[in-house]
Amino acid sequence: MNIEEYKFIKVKVEDGLGIVTLDNPPVNVLNLEVLREIEDIMSEMEEDEEAKAVVITGAGTYAFCAGADIKMIQKLDPSKAEGIVRFGHRVFNKVENLSKPVIAAINGLSLGGGNELCMACDIRISSDRARFSQPEVGLGLIPAWGGTQRMARLIGKAKAKELIFTGEMITAQEALRIGLVNKVVPDGEELRASMDIARRITTRSAPLAVMAAKKAINEGLQKQSLEEALEVEVNFIKDIAESEDLREGLEAFFSKRSPRFKGR
Description:
The two termini are 20 Å apart. The longest helix is centred in the first third of the chain and has 16 residues. Helices cover 48% and strands 16% of the residues. Helix 1 runs parallel beside helix 3 and helix 3 runs parallel beside helix 4. It has eleven helices and ten strands.
């Protein structure tokens, strides 16, 4: 599939992985054009059969993404605020609900909307020099592209309130301790480490099973009770039970060979 060229984002498919690089110097801020490009790229990644997983990172070494463009906020007509918030929700929901794994390779600052983008990803791999913050309250705002909801789900209500109420900047090591990121690696190794995890998923795991597991987790978390969430799991296993991949996985196991999954 031919990848379209974008103004603020670089995209390539390499060894079965979609590599998406935010490239809006100097700190890769998010404006409406960048959000539109992210949305379009996620649609491309969904349809691209060569891309089995997606890695999102930032150009340069200073920032993964320093959040929303403050100049855009300064010029914002209050009557249009709700529309912009809903647009951000739509874009980050598209990242979160992509049928393929999405991994954030976090190099440098991950602030505000940039951190909200990270939290929409399935897995977050951080440079040991990265820093994280939701500084919106210092501007008289709140994290409104999903931050108030995703952060509480990731690290718990009390810690999310502390970080959002104070706008405190935390280190990669603290982000790992509280569960905001999955892994911390030496600075400069975050993209390679993210690609390694993506390749492990795409080469060793049945794609239908990974897709079903992702959907089951995401959809189950939206349910009001564990019983309702478990029904989501049941519904997905019904489809998986009839898949060719399951038969291949079992046959490979008993034959003591590597499975050859076909995604069906």
